[in-house]
Amino acid sequence: MPCEEFEIQIADYVENQLLSPDRARVAAHLAVCADCHAFAQQLEQLDVALLRTVKAPPLPATFKAKLQRRLQTTVVLSEIQRVERKRQMQAEYEAGLARLNRFPLPPRKLLESLGHGGLIALAGWLAWQFLPQLGNFLAESGWGDFNQSVLFAWLVSVICLVLGLTAAFPMRVRRIFSAV
């Protein structure tokens, strides 16, 4: 089994892809390590077998002429044209980003909306659970007789008002809560 440290370098060595210092180091290692030397020989035999069995597909007779024509018709941009093209591409990229930023409901706003909806649902559930007890408590404390539906509407109105004010004045709300 070849040494892990040299395994990839041996493949590059066999394909003559290594620079001189690395090539000399791998050659020195191959001289002393029988497993790595055997691995290198197997790779060389594989290359020979592949060259014998795998044939390159024949190119059409018109290939060279088509390639030359294509190379000659390819427009090479001058430095000024390249700079202008780069500027145009940058402008298109920035315009695309601006369109993305104008998306009517960016992910942050979507999460805020879902959060507000969740808060409203939670407040509604809490009101549903505790509104009868609150009505009884207010009646017992001397606030008079409350209609449950009016109390529920009043509570929902207060919650919506608070949420609306926090959405309308987010900086003020942050200042208030950062001071607390």
Low-pLDDT stretches: none
Question: How much of the polypeptide forms β-strand, as a percent range?
Answer: under 5%
Order of helices and strands: HHHHHHHH
Number of helices, where a helix is a run of at least 4 consecutive DSSP H or I residues: 8
**How many independent structural domains?**
3
Determine the N-to-C terminus distance.
69 Å
Cα Rg:
39 Å
Rounded average pLDDT? 81
Report helical residue fraction: over 70%
Counting DSSP E segments of at least 2 residues, the number of strands comes to: 0
Largest sheet: none
Q: What is the global morphology?
A: elongated
Overall SS class:
mainly alpha
Description:
- This protein is mainly α.
- The chain folds into three domains: 4-53, no CATH class; 63-101; 107-179, no CATH class.
- Helices cover 79% and strands 0% of the residues.
- It is built from eight helices and no strands.
- It has helices at residues 4-14, 20-32, 34-53, 63-73, 79-101, 107-140, 148-168, 170-179.
- Helix 1 (4-14) runs parallel beside helix 3.
- 4% of the residues are buried.
- The model has no long low-confidence stretch (mean pLDDT 81).
Features:
mainly alpha, elongated, 180 residues, single chain, 79% helix
Summarize this entry quickly:
The protein has 180 residues and is mainly α.
Write the layout of secondary structure elements.
Blueprint: H1 4-14, H2 20-32, H3 34-53, H4 63-73, H5 79-101, H6 107-140, H7 148-168, H8 170-179
Helix pairs in contact: 1-2, 1-3, 2-3, 6-7
